[in-house]
Structure formats: C-alpha cells, structure tokens
C-alpha cells in the first residue's frame, strides 16, 4: 500500500499542511473520513468507496486506480479529502470526453492517464472537496493542481460538483462544463395522487393508465433494504441488472459482492424495489438513499410487461420519496422520457483542468458553444413538463 507525501504552503495562510496521496481508502480511518462534510451523500462515504475496493470494482485490473488526496494539519488532523482516481480510459464517468482523447491522439499527445474525482460509475451531483470549511475546500482545490502538475498528467476532472465545490474551484485554472439531467422534486406532496393532481389532465391520465396496466397484469412490488436481502435474492436481483448491461454489449460496472458488502457496512443506503408476478421476482430497480435524496441507479427485468420499466424505476421511486419525506429523486443520466412523468431538467456542472495551453484554449471555446446548446435544450424541455401552467 503506497502513501506519497508533499508539503506545501496553503493559500491564504502561512500555516503548513501535508498533502498525502493514498492508493486505498483503507489507509484512512473511516471515522476521520466521514467526519468531513459529505452532505449526506452516500457515494463519498468511506463505506461506499471501501466496498468498491474490496469487491475489486476499482483498483488493480481496472481503469480506476485510487489516488485519494488528504490534507493533514501539523497535528495530523485531516482538514480535507478528495476521492481521486487515475484513469486509463473514460468509461464509467458519464461526462464524455472521448473526443478530447481522440484529438490528443491525433496530435501525437497522450491523454491518458488523467485524474478524475467522482464516485466511480455514479453520475450523481455531490461533494468532492470533502472538508469542514470553505477555506479547506479551496486549499484542496489548489493541492489537486499541485499534484496533477507533479504527475505530468494531461488533465484533472472534478465531475458532478456541488455549489460549494464550484465556489472553491472558481480560480481561472478550471474550465466549466454544463450538462442536463432530469430530477424530481418533492413539493410537500401528501400522496402520489396529490402529486399527479399537479399534472395537466392528459398527462395525469397517461400516468394513471401506465400504473394501472402494471397492476392489471398482476404485478406487485416489495420494498427491501439492502441488508434485508439474503445471498440468493441478491444473486437474482443483480442478475436482472447485469442483463440490462449485457443487452447493450457491456459487462456490469459492479458485482454482487459490492452490493452485499455495502448493504452490510451502511444499512439503509441501498433500497431495492422488487417486482413480482405470482410471487416470483421478475424485475428490480436498485436505488441508493442518502440525506434527503433518493438516487436511481440500476434496473433489470426477466420478462416484458407494458410500462413495467416506468413503474419500477420512476413511479415506485417517486412514491417512496413521498412516503419517506425525501426532497429529491435523481433517477440517473439522460432520458427525456422521464419528463412526462414529473422529472424536470436540472443543470449539472463539472470542472476541468487541462495542462496543454493549446488544448485548453480549444476546449474552452468548445465549452462556450456547448453551454449555449445546453441552455437552449433545457429551455425547450421545460416547455414539455407535465405540470399545470400557473395562472397569471
């Protein structure tokens, strides 16, 4: 297990901190890591990152090599941390930069390895610069650049960042990339029917018809916490999810051991919606829960039923949020089909440091155009949300 150490003067203070780079989250005591501000986000908790490593989803033999950064005071206290990976490709990031890599290759330059900060395979907005103060976040942002330059990498990418991280990364060193996801927001709905009551008539009838078709087919749902699942049921549920990847010609990013490990280490973080027909499981949606948010991540089915995907992945998740008093539901990336079902366009942000000044200028120009296109896309999609128009 390798630990590298730098000493650097922190910005805005004359005090010194030590920058440590560790190649396994196991090098960091869970209590110290989780004591940093995670905003209730499950994906940056020690348990989540550790489960990925233990299950072999990241690390040796994968394109995700842990290089987590720690800023420690002279007393040994961790002031800030950054989940960080050295990447040898761009799979599992969901902020697509394959064209950047091709441009580097065509110019005879090496794009990989690059540095990426995000929970692997998890395109959900959340904290990356884990710290107790904004000043510590800013120091970690500077430390990342120091490390990236020392490693002579092509680039460093901090993906799906929060507003607090955006403020800490506001120096001119980073370029900003905007994208759009579709999120559901709980406006204090007393029930699912109360939520649908906010729809225009034709949209409400369509949603009710979709739900009714699933019910009329005799499909029933169970809600299970991950820790309530036995090994056999996890095999079945994971098999459903893996089949979705197989249809697209890919292997699953994760494995069943990851889900078992995380469920045991972080009870309540994994929520499974299990669809059953005549008592036999036929489909599932695997969610994660943290703070006031539900995150939809993985789905799969062993049988074809009309509207089963919409019910399992979206309506069941919305109903769960209303019952549990959760404020937001992030069902994953892409998918305009989510909009008629009550999900609204939501901007996401990522920060990018590009070492080569020529490519930096070219990418900066490209991002300006992309920002305008995303803004126009959000405007157009917003016109198709199903909610009643406010009078006046």
Could you explain the architecture of this structure?
- The chain is an alpha+beta fold and 392 residues long.
- The protein folds into two domains: 3-180 and 346-382, Aminopeptidase (3-Layer(aba) Sandwich), CATH 3.40.630; 187-326, Gcn5-related N-acetyltransferase (GNAT) (Aminopeptidase, 3-Layer(aba) Sandwich).
- It is built from eleven helices and 16 strands.
- It has helices at residues 30-34, 46-54, 98-106, 134-151, 163-168, 192-196, 201-216, 231-247, 256-265, 308-324, 357-382; strands at 3-9, 16-22, 64-66, 68-72, 78-82, 85-87, 114-117, 130-131, 155-158, 175-185, 219-225, 270-277, 280-290, 293-301, 328-330, 344-354.
- The chain has an eleven-stranded mixed β-sheet, with helices on both faces.
- Strand 13 (280-290) and strand 14 form a beta hairpin.
- Helix 2 (46-54) runs antiparallel to helix 9.
- The N and C termini lie far apart (64 Å).
- The model is unreliable at 6-14 (pLDDT under 50).
């Amino acid at each position: 297990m390798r630990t590298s150490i730098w000493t650097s003067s922190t910005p805005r203070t004359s005090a010194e901190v030590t920058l440590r780079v560790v190649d396994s989250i196991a090098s960091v005591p869970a209590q110290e890591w989780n004591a940093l501000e995670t905003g209730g986000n499950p994906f940056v908790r020690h348990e989540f990152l550790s489960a990925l490593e233990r299950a072999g989803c990241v690390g040796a033999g994968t394109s995700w090599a842990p290089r987590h950064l720690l800023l420690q005071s002279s007393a040994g206290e961790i002031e800030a941390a950054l989940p960080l990976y050295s990447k040898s490709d761009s799979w599992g990031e969901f902020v697509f930069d394959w064209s950047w890599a091709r441009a580097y290759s065509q110019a005879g330059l090496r794009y990989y390895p690059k540095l990426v900060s995000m929970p692997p395979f998890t395109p959900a907005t959340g904290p990356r610069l884990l710290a107790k103060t904004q000043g510590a976040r800013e120091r970690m942002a500077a430390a990342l650049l120091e490390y990236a330059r020392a490693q002579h990498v092509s680039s460093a990418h901090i993906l799906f960042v929060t507003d607090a991280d955006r403020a800490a990364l506001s120096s001119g060193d980073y370029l900003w990339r905007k994208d759009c996801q579709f999120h559901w927001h709980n406006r204090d709905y007393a029930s699912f029917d109360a939520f649908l009551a906010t729809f225009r008539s034709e949209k409400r009838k369509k949603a009710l018809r979709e739900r009714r078709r699933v019910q009329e087919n005799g499909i029933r749902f169970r809600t299970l916490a991950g820790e309530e699942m036995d090994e056999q049921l996890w095999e079945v549920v994971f098999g459903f999810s893996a089949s979705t990847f197989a249809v697209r010609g890919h292997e699953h990013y994760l494995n069943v051991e990851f889900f078992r490990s995380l469920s045991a280490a972080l009870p309540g973080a994994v929520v499974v919606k299990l669809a059953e027909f005549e008592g036999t499981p036929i489909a599932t949606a695997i969610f994660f829960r943290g703070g006031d948010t539900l995150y939809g991540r993985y789905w799969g089915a062993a049988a074809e039923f009309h509207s089963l995907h919409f019910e399992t992945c979206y309506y069941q998740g919305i109903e769960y949020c209303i019952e549990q008093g959760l404020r937001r539901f992030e069902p994953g990336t892409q998918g305009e089909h989510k909009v008629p079902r009550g999900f609204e366009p939501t901007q996401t942000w990522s920060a990018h440091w590009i070492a080569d000044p020529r490519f930096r200028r070219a990418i900066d120009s490209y991002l300006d155009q992309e920002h305008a296109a995303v803004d126009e896309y959000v405007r157009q999609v917003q016109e198709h949300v199903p909610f009643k128009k406010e009078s006046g």
